[in-house]
Fold this sequence. Notes:
Elements: E1 8-13, E2 20-26, E3 31-42, E4 46-53, E5 61-70, E6 73-83, H1 86-107, H2 116-119, E7 120-124
Amino acid sequence: MGPGDVLSAEATLDVRVDGAFRIVMKSREREHVHTGTYQVVEPPSKLVFTWTAADTPGEMTLVTLELVPHGEESELVLTHERFPKSDVTLRYKTGWGTIAEKFCGVSGAPQGRVEVNRWIRMSETRRW
Length: 128
């Protein structure tokens, strides 16, 4: 499951506070490498981790995933923040949206119940 033209992905995960991850998303033309460190691990409701892309070294962002129970269902809230450039924000929002739609497609979420844009909160941090 990956965004855009990604055909496959490989992940190495050490899911614990201060544990690291490395995700390699492969398209026909290149590999997209992302790394980070888990900041908060609270199963089954919250995961917070840093996110760095190999093609933008030194630009570390923060991703928060929250599962909020609603009776028999859950809401996934994804917040990706601390972007140094606004053009990157839209690119990631599109990517996360595509991943969320694919996830819902394989998770058995009922048709009409998927509200991808509502899940994704993006914010940017400007450096002055």
